[in-house]
Specification:
Length: 64
């Protein structure tokens, strides 16, 4: 259960923003989307390797 302490005089919009940020950090929505369909372990591993290679390529372009 997420609890967002609201200070005296703080607006509801600000509290909602804090709540949304906390909710996003928990990863509930991402987990639900992942569980909608099954992906093989080998496909997940391939995707993580491709993402890592892409990040490495981008990092090397920035430093070069």
């Amino acid at each position: 259960m997420l609890v967002v302490p609201v200070k005296e005089g703080e607006s509801i919009e600000r509290a909602l923003k804090k709540y949304k940020k906390k909710f996003e950090k928990t990863g509930v929505v991402r987990q639900l989307r992942e569980r909608q369909h099954f992906t093989k372990k080998s496909v997940k591993l391939r995707n993580t390797r491709l993402r890592a290679a892409y990040r490495e390529r981008m990092a090397s372009e920035i430093t070069a």
